[in-house]
């Protein structure tokens, strides 16, 4: 399975109380607190879309949207059909 890609990272500033939890948990050091003690994404290009910041924020101030995969895997039913076809009749 390929790694998730970030579609959007939204920080709801009024909801952020500046606790710094997201900054501490972000494995890619994307987030920092600004001069108003609000979380900001300073290295968004390094985001690995792990969603830890959103999961750990006690105030639900961060939302991480994951981009759909380019070659999205077919749903299970469709996948089964594809496998059956591949093993189909020999001539
Ligand atoms: S965890 Fe949430 S409330 Fe705390 S600094 Fe980050 S965004 Fe703000
Ligand atoms: S999704 Fe992961 S890598 Fe991206 S800002 Fe949040 S904690 Fe950091």
Task: Name the features.
alpha+beta, Alpha-Beta Plaits, two-stranded antiparallel ribbon, two-stranded antiparallel sheet, 3 helices, 4 strands, 23% helix, disordered C terminus, binds iron/sulfur cluster
Describe this structure in words.
The protein is an alpha+beta fold and 91 residues long. It has one domain: Alpha-Beta Plaits, CATH 3.30.70. The chain contains three helices and four strands; from the N terminus they run E-H-E-E-H-E-H. The protein has helices spanning 21-25, 52-56, 76-86, and strands spanning 5-11, 31-33, 39-41, 62-67. The strands form two sheets. The protein has a two-stranded antiparallel sheet with strand order 1-4. A two-stranded antiparallel ribbon has the order 2-3. Strand 2 (31-33) and strand 3 form a beta hairpin. The longest helix is centred in the C-terminal third of the chain and has 11 residues, at 76-86. It is elongated. The relative contact order is 0.25.
Give the end-to-end Cα distance, rounded to a whole number of Å.
Answer: 34 Å
Mean pLDDT: 85
**Element string (H = helix, E = strand):** EHEEHEH
Whole-number tally of structural domains: 1
Note the overall shape.
elongated
Q: Could you say what the CATH topology is called? A: Alpha-Beta Plaits
Proportion in helices: 10-25%
What CATH architecture do you see?
2-Layer Sandwich
């Amino acid at each position: 399975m390929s790694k998730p890609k970030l579609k959007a990272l939204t920080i709801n500033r009024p909801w952020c109380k500046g606790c710094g939890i997201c900054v501490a948990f972000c494995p890619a050091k994307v987030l920092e607190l600004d001069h108003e003690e609000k979380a900001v994404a300073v290295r968004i290009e390094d985001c690995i879309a792990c969603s830890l910041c959103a999961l750990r924020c006690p105030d639900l101030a961060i939302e991480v949207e994951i981009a759909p995969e380019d070659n999205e895997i077919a749903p299970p039913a469709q996948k089964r059909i594809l496998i059956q076809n591949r093993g189909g009749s020999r001539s």
